[in-house]
Predict the 3D structure of the following.
Amino acid sequence: TAAGSRCLLLLLLLLLLGVLGAPALGDPGPLEDVVIDRYYIPKICLREAQMGDFIRYHYNGTFKDGKKFDSSYDRGATVAGVVGVGRLITGMDRGLQGMCVNERRHLIVPPHLGYGSIGVAGLIPPDATLYFDVVMLDIWNKNDKLQITTLSKPEHCNRTVENSDFVRYHYNGTLLDGTPFDSSYSKGSTYDTYVGTGWLIKGMDQGLLGMCAGEKRSIIIPPFLAYGEKGYGTVIPPQASLVFSVLLVDFHNPKDGVFLEHLEVPESCKRRAVTGDFVRYHYNGTLMDGTLFDSSYSRNQTYNTYIGKGYIIPGMDQGLQGVCVGEHRRVVIPPHLAYGENGAGDKIPGSAVLIFDVHVIDFHNPEDPVEIETVFRPEGCNVTTRDRDFVRYHYNCSLLDGTRLFSSHDYEKPQEVTLGANKVIEGLNRGLLDMCAGERRVLIIPPHLGHGESGARGVPGSAVLRFEVELISMEEGVPEGYLFIWHGDPPASLFEQMDLNKDGEIPADEFSAFIKTQVAEGKGRLMPSSDPEKVIADMFQNQDRNQDGKITPDELKLKSDEDREKIHEEL
């Protein structure tokens, strides 16, 4: 029957297979292709090895029984080559394709895809199945370009790196598999060099272009733009792709000058600082990455100096030219106009660009006079103040930045002073001369006519002062050294007229009564004062030479007579 015929044919086929040595049941027989076990796949795989790619990898090669026949680890060097172009045994060529960097595979390579029936004398027997444990370390292609990823970038970027710029940057350098080979952070200093002049590997030269200070980048450099076939020392193998994580700290060009940014300029700027002026200013000094290296605010004291005279770094000498009082200015100074290659102390590195945010408090010139602005002058002003006059005035005193210092309005009475008596600062004394009662002025007083370099209580050293003054009243004064002057010739018998009770001596009350009568009758006048009684008492004390409480004829002398006798006392 048909069914019987089919059973007979199946039996004959089984007998034939047995004669030919067919594998036993459960044996899969010789492998036709490479067996690939991807036992570790990275979470991130940016690239897979393709035919024609150049790769670097490590491997262990064993037989089925686990006996090792070869290992790149034992040789201490990775294997590098092109995949898929016949330079490797076919099984390895196939097994490596599609791998990611850091991927691990087990490969089983049958003999016909390995070393076949010939093997390798003394190493691999004929018809050997080969077992490889492979880790992929690097993949690149001759058509690759630099891979740049911006990790972070400052909001404000006025300038980017160009060829011939000098850069300072931090970096971590790793191989493509993450193996670190170098880091500037571990050295505690930036890497400093010129860009585009051949001092760097080509890939870094290109990768730094267009960066802003403070920017972070990841730069992946293929070997032909790095160290190529030779590698570098023991840390960078031949044909290694390099990954740099870069933070650009600062950069400049040797041709750079000082860069100025006018942050805030007062609407009214009557005068700008020039060479030879003495400037008081506050500042914050930072590096280009924002690191603060110095601040006058932290010392609660301005920095005071002449500009254009070489007392400060050249960049600041230039940067303060033309400032206004009250101006806020940013001064960016390249290192060749600052502290150069050596830096300063432990806070300013060599070749560092410095940024100063400056607030100008005031400035003056040692030749400056008192600046007088008349705000109001009454009509019909015929009588004005002169030296030795006694004046009453109100004032408000402040620094040029508006900081209030003193005011006569804080007291019950106006300020009183005799002009030219060295009772007020010289600038104020000059500013009060030639004023009418009721006149108002603004005085700008430089420190050499104010409180000088040392300042005074509440007044900083070398401060320019601003006074708003109003003259309330004035009284005609007397010459220096006099407490009283006669309007005409004094009486010929002065003692007899003073000695009211004719007892041959003049006590204090008689002396006082006589002087007051002369003043009342317009025959003479006292030195102006808020306390006339004290002036008269001083006059009496000067005449009472033996201090016995009375004046005798021998003691009484006119000031003019005393001057002739070179006795410097007064009447």
Remarks:
- The chain has twelve helices and 28 strands.
- The longest strand covers residues 130-140.
- The chain has five domains: 35-140, 147-252, 259-363, 371-475, 484-570.
- Residues 1-27, 566-571 have pLDDT under 50 and may be disordered.
